[in-house]
Amino acid sequence: MLKRILSFILCVILVLPIFASTAYAKSLPYQISEIGMSIELPDHYDVYTRDMDMSSPLVVDYGYTEESLMEEFTSYNKYLFAYSIDNTSEFEISVTGSYYDDFSSYSDPMLIGIAAGRRLNSKDEEIEVVSTTIFDTGITKYICEQKIYSGENSIMGFIEYNTTFLGKDITISFYRFHDDLRDADLSMVEQVINSVTIDTSVLTSLNLETPWSFEYYDSVSGFSFLIPAGWFQEPDYNPSSESGMRFNYVKEDDLCIIYTCDDAWGQLSSADKVGKTRADIDTSVFKSSDVCMMASMSGASDYDLVTYGNHDFYRFVSKSDSEINPILTFLLALDHSYMVTFLFAGQEGDPMYSDFVRIVSSLEYYE
To answer: Is the whole model's pTM more than 0.85, yes or no?
Structure first.
């Protein structure tokens, strides 16, 4: 009897590793009809889609109502999310509009540069990017970023696959709660990505809002503004001013917007500062002679005063010696004693000038 028990235990020990490595190998197909996507997920996930049966026990089991579930989808542009049955991990699929061309049309170094520009704008110091690679499925290319979140009392590893395909920004994410990602996770997620198929007619017909790409924050001055999708931060830009950044348009290598900021408070005499605070020094303090001098320095023959968002800007349009960008537009303002300048490699009426206006209109100052 003992020999039989020992033999059985030995068999269990030998078989367990096999079961452990294949227990989650089975996958189930899911259709996301709104975006024309099909995807295969491991069978140990409870899956939520926008068109699911709202009387499903899954809705109640996780504390959702039909209203709260739809809010979860629409607030975060999700079209699918799925929790593992042991509540240790989650998949998410989100889709929005995109200004980018299909990622498959970009070189791998270009996509790596886009990813690097995005990282520069992340203000969440608790998220570390572990690795960035490009993953080509044959249908499209994905920017694949493995990350780890380290909070005060928790840790979470996650990986994001992001692409633009047929004018839509698609992100497929996997989260490992309270733990770092495992090798098995990475392999599983790669299989999931490879399973994706898309009905191009459905995806093309969708009219989805294109969100802001990111918020740029100038930690030196305290200014922030929103950068539309399609523009990326130049990773190696070295401003000649106290702070600044160059943003390039992904579809045209030579189209750029340059932001600079200098502290004018330190240039004021003690007498000029008497009875004043930083907030008192704004665009209204410029005299016409000051503006004429700035126009001359920028190479402009004339200027006008324009209002975008909460700021008045002096606008100068000048000619340059460049054959690529023969016209340059400068917008200049004073706010809280900071001299803020935006340069656009073009002029009003150019195709991307509206993005330039969107950027300067979103300028905010945070003390």
So the answer is: no
